[in-house]
Amino acid sequence: MNIRHIIKVARPTHWIKNIFVFLPVFFGGALLNTTEVVAAALTFMSFSLAASAIYCLNDIIDVDADRAHPVKCKRPIASGSITIPQAYGMMTVSLLLSILLMFLLPEGHAKSILVIIAYFVINVAYCLRLKEYAIIDVCIIASGFVLRILAGGYATGVHLSKWIVLMTFLLTLFLAFAKRRDDVLRMNTTGRAPRKNTSRYNLTFINQAITITGSVMVVCYVMYTVSPEIIAQFATDKLYLTSILVILAILRYLQISVVDEKSGDPVKVALSDRATQLILLAWMLSFLIIIYL
User: Fold this and answer.
1) Which of 11, 55, 62, 145 qualifies as a cystine partner to 172, CB 3.0-4.6 A?
2) What is the Rg, in whole angstroms, of the alpha carbon atoms belonging to the chain?
3) In degrees to the nearest 10, what's the CA dihedral of 1, 77, 75, 59?
4) Which residue would you say has higher pLDDT here, 96 or 63?
5) Cα 290 from Cα 269, distance rounded (Å)
6) CA distance 22 to 25
7) Is residue 102 within 8 Å of residue 133, measured between CB atoms?
8) Distance (Å, rounded) from C-alpha 55 to C-alpha 128?
């Protein structure tokens, strides 16, 4: 077992998902507060290690299926580069380090630890059985991101608006359904379901689910920007202008999903699609300018 195989199982490229722990600091206008940013960074690393523990478990559970797959058979556990006992050891160490990191927080570590443990337990259940049930699978994925922002909020002491919680759940549900759309397209092309629950989805249902979740998410964002609570918090009523960029981001992802049919991995889209990157950067900068200037 070498470091390259360990990194491959840990999937550090997927740690970008854990950037959601910074949302409480971002939306709370606390990016200039060093203490809160450091607390969010510790939570980011803690969640990343917890996620890597889950990736280990997932590869252990799927080892037989991966060995029969033309691409996944090259994964370290499936190929035998990392044995199953070693993988369990990696999982345990990752989880313990994740929890220990939370004790470095000046405050809020108890609630943050509970959130991370809840995340781990829910995802263990997901890996063992729940991922086989349509709709439940995407709801668990979305709830994982809600847990991320809750951990970030507890760790930094930043109050979470109800709109942020709703938007996080709806946005990640939207992305999860878009990913399932890619599975349905593959099933329709090859005649084989990539997942056990793919047969419980079809394009009509997926397209409607994407439209509903994306639309309601945009409405929630607009409601957030014009709510009296947020206007009073930031002493500005101009945040609604950023809604334009949010709508553009949703439309761009719909284009990638429906027209280009390349929504299989949201992380790859975020890291490779220049238009998406520019829209997200413009939204972030405009949000920060309105809040801080």
Assistant:
1) 145
2) 20
3) -130
4) 96
5) 27
6) 5
7) no
8) 12
The pLDDT value recorded for residue 76 is 86
pLDDT for 52: 94
Per residue, the 3-state secondary structure of 210-253, as one string, reads HHHHHHHHHHHHHHHHHCHHHHHHHCCCCHHHHHHHHHHHHHHH
**Identity at 158, one-letter amino acid code:** V
**Mean pLDDT of the region 251-260:** 91
Please give the Cα distance from 237 to 195 (Å, whole number).
Answer: 46
* Contact of 52 with 18, CB cutoff 8 Å: no
CB 140 within 8 A of CB 180: no
